[in-house]
Amino acid sequence: MAAAAGAFSLREVLGAFQAAVTERREVLLGPYLRGWRGLVRFLNSLGAIFSFISKDAVAKIQIMESYCGGERQEEYRTLQSMVAYELASGLVDLQRRSEHPDSGCRTVLRLHRALRWLQLFLEGLRTAQEDSKTSTICTDSYNASLATYHPWVVRKAATVAFCALPSRNAFLEIMNVGTPEEAVVMLGDALPHISSVYGITEELYAQHKLLNLP
Ligand code: 1Q0
């Protein structure tokens, strides 16, 4: 079944991550944040139990959108220009969150870590057996990525919420890209783009020693 006009389709969301990478391997913040907005919309459609996750994601997206639409918007066109600008201007708290608690660099780092979860989750979803549990795929991906950075209480709440996820086939269907088989194909096409955004960001942050920003 094709997605109805105006209906939510994850194809567009994943397309945003594709559009985020330029030929010069820069990451454009506009499409990057659009991709996140779409993911949050999808998360909200899964139920109120996920709202503590989407609230945090939205707060971070909003911080970034305000930079991207603000006075220094040229500096926030790409991830590369943002890192260069914030570091050169002393706008990043490197040791302790104090004067610049919401720098673009630390805010994107949180989304970047979540993107690793997404990459693992989608890969798990794509390659799992038909009768696999989405909650298991999600928990495994989370434990192998984001969980490292979360305190016990957040890990507990996240794991409880994951139990509310629908079965793998139902999940593939609500992605609204056609049959589960078509969704699997779409995931195979989309994943290299997400991996590319993830890899470029990881390299940039490693280069500037930003991977542990408080
Ligand atoms: C489908 C299930 C979604 C599961 C999402 C997994 C992430 C769990 C994260 C739990 C985070 C809880 C709230 C707060 C955390 C913050 O402390 C933490 C650090 O920030 P800070 O400022 O305190 O240092 N924040 C984060 O780690 C950011 C977390 C952002 C999570 C964004 C998840 C967006 C998910 C979208 C759903 C995608 C569904 C995938 C299907 C796509 C299919 C093509």
TrEMBL record:
Gene Ontology annotations for the cellular component aspect, listed alphabetically: cytosol; endosome membrane; Golgi apparatus; nuclear outer membrane; plasma membrane
Keyword Mitochondrion: no
Primary site of residence: membrane
Subcellular location: Cell membrane; Cytoplasm, Cytosol; Endosome membrane; Golgi apparatus, trans-Golgi network membrane
SUPFAM superfamilies reported in the protein's UniProt record: Glycolipid transfer protein, GLTP (SSF110004)
Residues annotated as domain Glycolipid transfer protein: 29-176
Any GO BP annotation: negative regulation of autophagy
GO terms, molecular function: ceramide 1-phosphate binding; ceramide 1-phosphate transfer activity
Presence of keyword Membrane: yes
Key words of the record: Cell membrane, Cytoplasm, Endosome, Golgi apparatus, Lipid transport, Lipid-binding, Membrane, Nucleus, Transport
Catalytic activity of the protein: N-(9Z-octadecenoyl)-sphing-4-enine-1-phosphate(in) = N-(9Z-octadecenoyl)-sphing-4-enine-1-phosphate(out); N-(hexadecanoyl)-sphing-4-enine-1-phosphate(in) = N-(hexadecanoyl)-sphing-4-enine-1-phosphate(out)
Membrane topology, as annotated: Peripheral membrane protein
Family: Belongs to the GLTP family.
Protein name: Ceramide-1-phosphate transfer protein
Organism of provenance: Anser brachyrhynchus (Pink-footed goose)
